[in-house]
Design goal:
The relative contact order is 0.13. The strands form two sheets. The chain has a four-stranded mixed sheet with strand order 4-3-5-6, with helices on both faces. It has a two-stranded antiparallel ribbon with strand order 1-2. The protein is elongated and about 90 Å long. The chain is built from five helices and six strands; from the N terminus they run ββαβααβαββα.
Length: about 160
Amino acid sequence: MTRVKTNDKIKTVFGINYKNMKKNLPLIVVSLLILLGISTFIVVKFNPNILVAVPVDKTAGQTKNTSSEIILFYGNGCPHCAKVEQYLSENKVSDKISFSQKEVFSNKDNSALLGEKAHFCGLNTSSIGVPFLWDGPSGKCLVGDEEIINYFKQKLN
């Protein structure tokens, strides 16, 4: 059997040694990603109109705000809610101002609605408490017995 002596030179293209390709592959991928990132930055920097803003409806999924929609969220057994309820009944507020009351401790739908309203106002929905008042006409949220009682006092005057 005769052996043929081959050229010991390793074939290279663009300076890449194919024998060491597996070693160099991660370096090549990282280099290409960096190059892509830099080119994207340059394109956006010199042509900012290339990016298109998509409007987002922040109120999607929420109930429609009507001019008369004022909602008082409360919880059965909540002492602060009881103070608000006492003020409302003593001053016959429901006869003078149109608003609805929703219990949230035992009603998941009402609790979810409270979360939506709190989110709309930019409040942390994981720690929101009751009493909570949603003033639909102004899009404002009020939390706590004193703040809600003062709100109704101003509405009555």
